[in-house]
């Protein structure tokens, strides 16, 4: 009888040890899976950010007729970003106010193993009431030797509490910028705080903007606001939010560091693209651009400063 009891105790101890080992193994396996998932998610975020950075282009005006040893001396106004392989870009319309007296806008486009190059852009359309504009680069950099990409546009609007990232490019020295010098990339993570109504084009109708948990920097106007979950643009940086009034990020001002940024919902931009029959890439089907079959519609003067 004693031998039987000892045998049972041995079996119970062995089973308990096996169960403890199984629990430890399951816990370790779960930890490995969690770490793998986190690394995969981080890799996807970094990949989306790298692709979006390749789609960014500073909007500038060259102050020189010919390039010097450091390239063209230029004035920086804001950002635009490519949305398809045909060379179309989005930006905010107020950035183009600097060229309303007939000045020719340019963009700085990245090249692999070479300094950025100046390309002319044509203003295709503007919606002043919602402060969005469509540009097109000439020649099309996607058909040449440029290091460019496009940003997909979100099919669904941003939501309160959503994690987002604002990306922009600008010169290292705002007051003394040259085209052969590489730009400074600004990355501003945050969340969507709320949705507000304001007049973007007085005395036009009210328009919706969403507020960001972080302030925007000078020159970020026109930059894409990306959803971290998809890497798609849910908006465009408008400026700083001052109690119902947006202040362009191109304007210097001594403001508190906790002043929230304001962004234009991407739906206003896609509506303008639809009106002009221009295709874009959707985050839900990045391999196929979504488009609508609706009809599409030399010496530069110095822009108004």
Describe this structure in words.
This protein is of the alpha+beta class. The protein has one domain: Thrombin, subunit H. The chain has two helices and 16 strands. The protein has a six-stranded antiparallel beta barrel with strand order 1-2-3-6-5-4. The chain has a six-stranded antiparallel barrel with strand order 7-9-10-14-12-11. The chain is globular, with a radius of gyration of 25 Å. The model is unreliable at 30-46 and 285-305 (pLDDT under 50).
Describe the structure in brief:
It is built from 2 helices and 16 strands. The chain has 305 residues and is α+β, with helices and mostly antiparallel strands.
Quick tags:
single chain; 305 residues; alpha+beta; Thrombin, subunit H; six-stranded antiparallel beta barrel; six-stranded antiparallel β-barrel; 16 strands; globular; disordered C terminus
């Amino acid at each position: 009888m004693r031998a039987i009891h000892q045998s049972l105790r041995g079996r119970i101890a062995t089973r308990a040890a096996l169960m403890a080992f199984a629990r430890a193994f399951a816990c370790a396996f779960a930890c490995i899976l969690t770490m793998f998932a986190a690394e995969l998610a981080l890799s996807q975020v970094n990949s989306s950010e790298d692709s979006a950075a390749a789609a960014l282009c500073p909007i500038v005006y060259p102050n020189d007729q010919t390039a010097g040893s450091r390239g063209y001396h230029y004035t920086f106004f804001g950002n635009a970003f490519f949305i398809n392989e045909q060379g179309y870009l989005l930006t905010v319309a107020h950035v183009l106010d600097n060229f309303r007296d007939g000045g020719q806008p340019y963009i700085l486009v990245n090249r692999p193993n070479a300094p950025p190059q100046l390309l002319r852009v044509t203003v295709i359309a503007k919606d002043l009431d919602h402060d969005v504009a469509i540009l097109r680069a000439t020649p099309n950099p996607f058909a040449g030797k440029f290091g460019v990409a496009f940003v997909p546009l979100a099919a669904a609007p941003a939501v309160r509490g959503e994690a987002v990232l604002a990306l922009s490019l600008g010169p290292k020295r705002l007051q003394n910028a040259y085209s052969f010098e590489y730009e400074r990339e600004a990355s501003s993570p945050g969340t969507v705080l709320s949705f507000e109504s304001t007049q973007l084009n007085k005395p036009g109708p009210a328009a919706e903007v969403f507020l960001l948990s972080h302030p925007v920097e000078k020159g970020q106007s026109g930059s894409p606001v990306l959803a971290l979950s998809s890497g798609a643009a849910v908006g465009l940086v408008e400026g700083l939010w001052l109690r119902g009034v947006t202040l362009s990020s191109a304007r210097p001002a001594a403001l508190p560091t906790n002043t929230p940024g304001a962004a234009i919902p991407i739906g206003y931009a896609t509506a303008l693209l639809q009106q002009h029959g221009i295709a874009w890439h959707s985050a839900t089907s990045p391999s196929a651009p979504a488009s609508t079959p609706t009809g599409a519609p030399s010496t530069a003067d110095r822009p108004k400063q």
